[in-house]
Amino acid sequence: MTSSATLADPWPAPVATGPVEAVVSLPGSKSLTNRALVLAALADRPSVVRRALRSRDTMLMAQALTALGAPVDTSTEDWAVTPLSASAGSVAAEVDCGLAGTVMRFVPPVAGLVDGTVAFDGDPHMRNRPVGEVLTALTALGVRVDDDGRGSLPFTVVGTGAVPGGTVVIDASASSQFVSALLLAGARYEHGVDVRHDGKPVPSLPHIEMTVAMLRDRGVVVDDADANRWAVAPGPVAGRDEAIEPDLSNAAPFLALAAVTGGTVTVRHWPERTTQPGDLLRDLLGAMGCRVSWTADDGLTVAGPGDGHRGLRGLDVDLHEAGELAPAMAALCALASTPSHLRGIAHIRGHETDRLAALAQELGALGADVTEHPDGLSFRPARLTGGVFHTYADHRMAHAGVVIGAVVPGTLVEDVATTSKTFPDFASFWAALL
Ligand SMILES: O=C(O)C1=C[C@@H](OP(=O)(O)O)[C@@H](O)[C@H](O)C1
Ligand SMILES: C=C(OP(=O)(O)O)C(=O)O
């Protein structure tokens, strides 16, 4: 086994010697874990988050909530959360957002409910990721935010222990997390929160549906009957004991491994129904020529075409709802035997890195025939050769790199350890399959 402590950098991506046959159990969902933690911190009694994802993003969330006065006990697989308490007294906390969008966007609305000052900062690139709409909205809802007016990290939220709340209009076209952030804390605001979107379409709508579903599971009344409007009624958030589903977006490189090698990969415990956008992989991989099947006992199984990536059809798809799948899908499109076009994903330029520029650069450097568009990427079939694949501190760039490396000998993935953002020991897990 390759441990992250001994990983070569750049890391020679393992090459498949034949069709990969594997059954994998994947770690929990980042999005579900971090929402469950936030809601547990706001709840009326202690909660347990079972099978929580233990990764950089979720540890940062646990540390942030603990600093705000809602201790998260991460000592076992099931994380116990003690909610924020009104009697906790004044806090002076610092929150490290790392490169976690969910920490930078979801925690400030919680900090408004705390009595004290909460200073936010993060990794160097995090200062470029958008958050201004959340800060402006919080100000309009009655929370004091001190920043330098750029609408980005670093900033300080000065909470008084109570937030008036009310109606707010934001432009959430850069990230669905702006909406989720306000909804998650909104029930604890005196008048709740009524969030309206005005702007180009909101991306990643399944992630907002995930937020709404988790609020309703905790007894919160949410009105999402109208497009571009979400209203959360004021009221308690019920504490819960919840098991976290496997991370279906992180399943992408593993299912892609079946696709490119002509093998068969099963992801166990794949839910029959879910709000995770990773579930779209069933359709996407099916459209590329894979056989996809699901059973309650086994999970989701993907079988690649007989001749592996040479038999993969290209894909013409709008990924606006599931932009986080774009890096792995781009790797498949670069290897496919017919042209592809991934559209509707301008917003992923604001992810961990500018993913459209990074994918075009790195796949192109290996010989892919890729064109970068303002809102996507297109590909024509090409023969790839090995080389260094840079990752820009982006876990999903590393996923794209290892998928390519599985069938393109000589691919070296730089900083593969960046995968620790959402997947502990990804490289050793991956290497064990090839
Ligand atoms: O709410 C969430 O958990 C997420 C929402 C999406 O963000 P964007 O809407 O910014 O794409 C997604 O890409 C991200 O990985 C997780
Ligand atoms: C966009 C992503 O992450 P974040 O939660 O940091 O926005 C991602 O994981 O693809």
TrEMBL record:
Catalyzed chemical reaction(s): 3-phosphoshikimate + phosphoenolpyruvate = 5-O-(1-carboxyvinyl)-3-phosphoshikimate + phosphate
Pathway involvement of the protein, from the record: Metabolic intermediate biosynthesis; chorismate biosynthesis; chorismate from D-erythrose 4-phosphate and phosphoenolpyruvate: step 6/7
Localization in the cell: Cytoplasm
Alphabetized UniProt keyword annotations: Amino-acid biosynthesis, Aromatic amino acid biosynthesis, Cytoplasm, Transferase
Principal location: cytoplasm
Gene3D superfamilies: Enolpyruvate transferase domain (3.65.10.10)
Quaternary context: Monomer.
Protein name, per record: 3-phosphoshikimate 1-carboxyvinyltransferase
